[in-house]
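Researcher: Re-running this chain for the archive, since the previous output was lost when a drive failed. Same request as before.
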Amino acid sequence: MSKPSAQTGLGSLATGAVTALAIAVQTGLAAVVGVIIARELGRTAETDGFFAAYAVFIVLALAATAIRVTVLPPLARARAERRLSSETVSYAVSIGMIAVPVLAVGIVAARPIAELLTGFGPDAAVDAAASALPWMIVAGLGQFTAGLLASSLAALDDYLVPALGYIVGSATGLLLIVVRIGEDGTDAVAWGMAVNAVLATSICAGWLVVRSRRERMPVGAARVDSRGAPRRLLELGAGAALPFALQSIYLVCLPIAARDGVGSVTSFNYAYLIAAAVVGICASSLGLVTAVPLTRLGLDAGRIARHVEASSWPALLAVAATAGIFAVAGAEITHLVLGGAYGEDVGAEIGRLVVALAPYMVASLALSVTFPLVFVSGRGGRLPLVGLGVLAVHVPLAFAGQALAGLEGLALALAVSTGIAFAWMLGLLDAVRSTLERLASAVAIVGGCALVGFVPAGAVLGPAVAAVAGLALSGAALAVVRPSGLTSAWHYLRELA
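Model: Regenerated structure tokens:
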């Protein structure tokens, strides 16, 4: 499994577009699931409990994405040394050593974990969380296996099949949910998510088998390298530690959000999922597809600063558009999409939360494109310390934020904690000043253009017209400014290969 694939040379924009498309389809189908839950089940203690368990899946899925980034550099090197099959199988065994105990704990201790996640809330919330939790863990762990196999294919410059696997898995899971949700409620959603992960893993695994047969790979090439097991476990632990901690800070927010009453966890979750979708589609995809070429090119402080700035520009535009649209039309959008249980007051609350999460989105997208660089530079071993530090800081921040400003305060606490993690990573890379200067300039330009567009539109126009006019005015302001960083970002991402 060492021959170049036909996809070699697509470049970061093309492969990023393929990966972003897969993430966009997954996210879109997940959004459809959210709409189905809202319209079929409303905004109740049961949905609060389900989304509390769903947060565990988010934690595992984000850790899986981090593992995918973590293993890309060693898998790329293994391909060059003609030992990709052995390295892939060895990583799979290492993941299994972690996954099996996690699943066992999730099954045996589902009820006590559900009580913690719901803040010892109503019985309906605890019951829903306990029922969904084992399936959520299966779905989350399935993201680990699918991510590993997708990374192995990425080392072969093949991004299309993993994208197809994730899309097929998401569509099939959605079909199961649509068929069963009327009878089984939130349990059907958990089952559909588990099916999604199993199919994504199976499609990637099947294609790897096909490729190995085409290239007549000896059966013995896929042997487990037991001598490297400690190293791989450390790599996996280091890779998952920070994303796990960053998603755990969201997990910490949920029982604190429950203090705002029934339905508050559901509202916070919907706003967070919108923010996470923007970051995932626009930034995480580029982080994934640029890890391999950057491993080949090498890094210094200047390249790090340029890479973070260039990779952040497209996502910053999406963050500004999302925040602006929800600022002027959040209540109407939420009510229209999610249904009667999300009327004017609840819809307005979710709209405000999306806007409040804009700083979190900025910090998170910058972190997403920086995270792979830590592993490309070989400095990932320090990330567990970063994760522990950020988690320790976030707990008092979350309590203080909720006490001072409710759910919006929790959103700002997420932004501060994520920003600390981002700055800490830049410190590990010795690129704090140069990167922050470039990024701050981009944020100021994009944010200023968004304010010029959406503030006057929201003040004088109705919600729907204000959203369209705000986008148009923001785009016009950006065209007038003609920032050199945006043009430079386009050329950089197109040429990186």
